From TrEMBL:
Keywords: Signal
Xref: InterPro entries: Cyt_c_II, Cyt_c_prime
Record's protein name: Cytochrome c
Signal peptide start-end: 1-22
Domain of life, per lineage: Bacteria
UniProt source species: Marinobacterium weihaiense
Length: 147
């Protein structure tokens, strides 16, 4: 029974990876835009807390930081050749400067994970700088790779 379940799981994973490879450019664009929109939703609320525009709720902030950390791992799959025109603000420079772009995306994953860890402390003196680092990372890619 375990062997059958393992084979079923392997089949689903193979189908999922094949789907990503065979995705239409607009599907990849929608995928990454959706992921970034979800990240912005949570990051915006966290920013309002950091700036004192809304009351700080340590539990909610920590929950949102964890969501952003998990979401930060997803967008890279949607950046594939042929997805830098049409309904997107992503620039073709991504392909030309792939190593720089990939480095920025890896930094987003790392800094988002650090923010999620720091958020668990509830200490705004630690949270603010970690939050700022994530924001700078986002801005760095936007400045170089987004129209």
């Amino acid at each position: 029974m375990k062997k059958i379940a393992a084979l079923g799981l392997a089949g689903m994973l193979a189908a999922a990876s094949t789907t990503a490879i065979a995705a239409k450019p607009e599907d990849a664009i929608n995928y990454r835009q959706g992921t970034f929109s979800a990240m912005a939703w949570h990051f915006g609320t966290m920013g309002a807390m950091v700036k004192g525009k809304v009351d700080y709720d340590a539990e909610d902030f920590s929950r949102r930081a964890e969501i952003v950390s998990q979401l930060s791992k997803l967008p890279m799959e949607g950046f594939m050749p042929g997805t830098y025109s049409g309904e997107t603000d992503a620039l073709p420079a991504i392909e030309d400067e792939w190593d720089k772009f990939e480095g920025g995306m890896n930094a987003l994953v790392e800094r988002s994970a650090k923010l999620a860890e720091v958020a668990k402390t509830g200490d705004m003196d630690q949270i603010k700088p970690a939050f700022g680092e994530v924001g700078k990372t986002c801005k760095g890619c936007h400045d170089n790779f987004k129209d």
